Amino acid sequence: MTRKHVAAALALAAMTAATAVRADPIDEAEISINGGEVTLPTRAPAPAFLKDVLPEVRSGWLYRDPDTRAMQMDDFENPAMVFVDQGLESWDTADGTVGKSCADCHNDIESMKGVRAAMPKMNKAGDSLWSLENFINDCRVNRMGAEEWGWNSPEMKNMTAAVSLQSRGMPVQVAIDGPAAEWWEKGREMYYTRYGQLEMACANCHEDNAGRMIRADHLSQGQINGFPTYRLKDAGMVSSHQRFVGCVRDTRGETFKAGSDEFRALELYVASRGTGLPVEGVAVRH
Amino acid sequence: MAENVKPRVKVPKSASAGDVITLKTLISHPMESGQRKDADGKIIPRSIINRFVVDFAGTNALDVQLEPAISTNPYFEFDVLVDKSGEFTFTWYDDDGSVYEEKQSIEVA
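^ inputs. structure came back:
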């Protein structure tokens, strides 16, 4: 090997090492919030159906920059809390022809503890899989006589943020058997189906390449336990369906709509991939 | 009148005399710059917080003039040297004449 080649090889080795360090998730075992007031584990054993593909499931928090991680470690600095506050306000505000607020039936919002951890789930009638947004709109229309909120409207995201926070720290546990099995199967199929001109499936990035860089972005496992999340890029709240739309769009594909059957099925499947990870209430990502 | 305006402050509950403590404040406010136009092409009138004042036990600690370029939900983080117990008063002045006030005490041993 000539001297020039050695130098080139060394430079390459150094570059590879630097990239590997930068791209790996950090080692932290938990997210410590407000100086330890709340601690959220960042890892969980992979669910049985993923045993062969993933060693463990990991929070997206582990893949983000130190500054972004720090924002989520202090509720005062977590920009999502502004929206949680707005959600709490609307929880107590009467709306619609019946003149009732959420609090009139559900009392304090703490009664929603655990709700987010089990979403999405089959509705009462058992004929459809519902996301948290569907349950909220069902209440608005049928109990309050109010107008539906748009899936990604600020009002809806404020409310889902406030409701999610009540389950912070509880492990995600969605039902994927019984009537939900069909939806789960559909979601699983979508996860491995290549979409768009770029022909990319969710799995290509979030299963095969989690931890690596895709151009300037650091790929995570694509877990949704932190949603709705404050996304720095959007300077606002983002729902999981909004994120799904973004991913499918990035494959240069025609996307499904937020709230569609397809994305609710995908939400169930992706949620089940994060079984055991804690609801992060409102996470911060970039 | 700006909607959903809510001031928040974070002050340590206690400190030792002579300590430099960090205060954090945030007020949710749209900070409409007055430069934007609505769908009909009409200018959306300026509506911002234009002044932020912090007093400690009757002494002024901070007085800031805010300009339209400052983004939504202005956040301030700053250090204050405390040598006695007292009350912090935080006051935000809105373009529309509203004044938002928040108080918090600190024990200094």
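The mean pLDDT of chain B is 91. The interface with chain A takes residues 4, 6, 8, 10, 24, 26, 28, 72-73 of chain B (CB under 8 Å).
thumbs up if we can close this ticket
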